[in-house]
């Protein structure tokens, strides 16, 4: 009889302990050392800078000088670099008719063929030469690649039948806004747009 009571007592004790554990009060967050670590996701690397020509004057004629911008289509970066003027090492041979600005210009794309450059208040109208510098700089900015067409589902020969036709892009015109004046300058009179 004694031997049969022990397993019953143990089973009862186990039931009491299980039932009692349900009433344990909750505690707050307990600090316990460093957070978990392991392999982190790789950092997204920004693309390498792109070279673009900005146009200063050499003996009165627009000439390209290389500058780094964030990538193709960074018109704002190119325009700001142009208004920053020639570097100290370039000033013996390079000049500019563009004024030093009290604040950066606002650069926006109007459409595929026009870029808007809004100058800060009080900047007088730009000379024809300064406008040419600006238009040539904008025209020299590398354009981002056009998106490739995607094949509709179930058409295996789509790529063969829709080969893109390469056309050189039309250099954009520049629409320049100042206080009380606006003018447009095409890039038709620009010299070779290669970075030298």
Beta-strand share of residues: 15-25%
User: Could you give the distance between the termini?
Assistant: 106 Å
Low-confidence stretches: 156-168
- Return the average pLDDT rounded to an integer: 78
Q: Please provide the ordered H/E string of secondary-structure elements.
A: HEEHEEHHEE
Radius of gyration: 34 Å
Count of β-strands:
6
Oligomer: single chain
Helix fraction by DSSP (H/I, runs of at least 4): 10-25%
> How many helices?
4
The largest sheet, given as strand count, sense and whether it forms a barrel, is: 4 strands, mixed
Q: For the largest beta sheet, what order do the strands appear in spatially?
A: 3-4-5-6
Helix and strand composition category: alpha+beta
Q: What general outline do the C-alpha atoms trace?
A: elongated
Report on the architecture of this protein:
The chain is α+β, with helices and mostly antiparallel strands and 196 residues long. The chain has a domain at 50-143 and 170-185. It is built from four helices and six strands. The protein has helices at residues 2-21, 75-84, 128-140, 158-161, and strands at 50-58, 61-69, 106-111, 114-118, 173-178, 181-185. Strands 3-4-5-6 form a four-stranded mixed beta sheet. Strands 1-2 form a two-stranded antiparallel sheet. A hairpin with a 2-residue loop joins strand 5 (173-178) and strand 6. Helix 2 (75-84) packs across helix 3 (128-140). The longest helix has 20 residues, at 2-21.
């Amino acid at each position: 009889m004694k031997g049969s009571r022990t397993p019953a007592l143990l089973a009862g004790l186990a039931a009491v302990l299980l039932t009692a554990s349900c009433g344990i009060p909750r505690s707050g967050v307990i600090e316990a050392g460093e957070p978990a670590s392991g392999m982190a996701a790789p950092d997204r690397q920004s693309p390498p800078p792109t070279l673009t020509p900005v146009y200063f004057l050499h003996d009165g004629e627009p000439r390209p000088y290389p500058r780094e911008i964030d990538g193709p289509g960074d018109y704002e970066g190119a325009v700001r670099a142009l208004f920053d003027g020639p570097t100290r090492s370039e000033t013996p041979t390079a000049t500019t008719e563009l004024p030093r600005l009290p604040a950066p210009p606002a650069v926006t794309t109007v459409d595929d063929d026009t870029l808007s450059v809004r100058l800060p208040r009080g900047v007088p109208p730009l000379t024809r030469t300064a406008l040419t510098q600006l238009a040539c700089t904008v025209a020299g900015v590398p354009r981002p690649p056009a998106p490739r067409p995607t094949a509709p589902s179930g058409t295996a020969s789509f790529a063969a039948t829709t080969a893109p036709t390469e056309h050189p892009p039309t250099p954009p015109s520049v629409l320049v806004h100042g206080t009380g004046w606006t003018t447009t300058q095409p890039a038709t009179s620009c010299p070779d747009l290669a970075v030298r």
